[in-house]
Design brief:
Layout: E1 5-12, H1 14-33, E2 39-45, H2 49-57, E3 63-74, E4 77-86, E5 96-104, H3 108-118, E6 124-132, E7 145-149, E8 155-156, E9 172-177
Parallel strand pairs: 2-3, 2-5, 5-6, 6-7
Antiparallel strand pairs: 1-9, 3-4, 8-9
Helix pairs in contact: 1-2
Amino acid sequence: MAAPIELDRPLITPDEIEARVAELSGQINKDYARTGRAVSIVVVLKGAAFFAVDLMKHLDLPTKMDFLQAHSYSGIESTGEVTLIKDVSMPLAGTDVLIVEDIVDTGLTASWLLRHLSGHHPATCKLVTLLDKPSRRIYPVTIDYTGFSIPDEFVLGYGLDYEEGYRNLPAIYTARPVGE
């Protein structure tokens, strides 16, 4: 069970998420339709699972899906190191890879993922993230598709967690651990 959290307010509502995911999918459909290749969707577990499923529902492209799990956080703080827990299992060489992330803040994990997956020799490797915190950026990273730019606040819901809890909230909430 996750430690108690105090939810502040919905930062992004379910309706706003749904509309933006549809817009992003439309842009991705348009951009990748020209390649004639299947898109290899690489979902970064666990936080991006909700976003990836909703995104893929709107894609009318041939797709393949795999999962990768890496983390660089403990609680609400970055450890400064990326740990790979589960790597992709499908071949990516010559494919168009689209990494699906929940949030990019310091850029550590996202830049690491782009380097790591580029080592699999895809034709292209792009990144889509639901949330971007540009004010926290330390490591340069190119985000090809961004759902929402958000302020430097702790957020959870719609797949984002605190100690593995709160992922099931349908909106994105600002929050803080109780007592802070």
